[in-house]
Amino acid sequence: MSLFGVEVGYRKYKTHKLDAALQENTGYAIPDSLVGVFSNREIRFFRRAFSYSDEDFSGTSNLAQFVLFEAKTELSFSDYLFTMQRARLEDRQSEVSEFTDAAKAKASARQGGTIFFSFLFFSFIILISTSSAVFEYFQCASFEEVLPAVSYLVRDYSLNCASSRYKSYVAYAVAMLFVYPLG
């Protein structure tokens, strides 16, 4: 559960940081004639969606692959907003949704990468501690000073390595070797 909490917090932090950077960028300014047309939520989404194709955050992008933008070579953010408004007035929702779906797909692909990285990172941390615990089960210290010689588990000197209790868990330890450190 804590991994999920960390991931959600990190995602909110990155989204807030990107939104703040785009809002400060003059290339992503909203024209005065469109200030009341879109809601704040829509503006945040449009800024993020436009930024996915604007690699250097210059405020211009090439969105020629979408029918909605009529094969323009360079499109500024304000032109993009005017086009979205015009499409909404002309009831061209299918073309708008085509673009927004592509933006959402890019956003979820980025999000999936961070989730996968977090999963691998925590798996690696768990791998080290689990592998150490499994390998420690095979470390027995022999005491030859005592006749007959005895050996005890280094991790827990109360467990004799010749006892039936120790031998019953050896099979489990070997199975765990194949499950985690080697698997």
Q: What is the overall silhouette?
A: rod-shaped
Order of helices and strands: HHEEHHEEH
- Mean of residue pLDDT values: 76
Our measurement of the CA-to-CA distance between the termini, rounded to an integer number of angstroms, reads 24 Å
> In what range is the share of β-strand residues?
5-15%
Give an overview of the whole structure.
Helix content is 60%, strand content 7%. It has 183 residues and is mainly alpha-helical. The protein has two domains: 2-116, no CATH class; 137-179, no CATH class. The strands form two sheets. A two-stranded antiparallel sheet has the order 1-2. The protein has a two-stranded antiparallel ribbon with strand order 3-4. A hairpin with a 6-residue loop joins β3 and β4. α1 (2-24) packs across α2 (40-53). The model has no long low-confidence stretch (mean pLDDT 76).
Outline:
The chain is built from five helices and four strands; from the N terminus they run H-H-E-E-H-H-E-E-H. It has 183 residues and is mostly helical. A hairpin with a 6-residue loop joins strand 3 (140-143) and strand 4.
Task: Give keywords.
183 residues, mainly alpha, two-stranded antiparallel ribbon, 5 helices
Write the layout of secondary structure elements.
Blueprint: H1 2-24, H2 40-53, E1 60-61, E2 75-76, H3 77-89, H4 93-136, E3 140-143, E4 150-153, H5 164-179
Antiparallel strand pairs: 1-2, 3-4
Helix pairs in contact: 1-2, 2-4
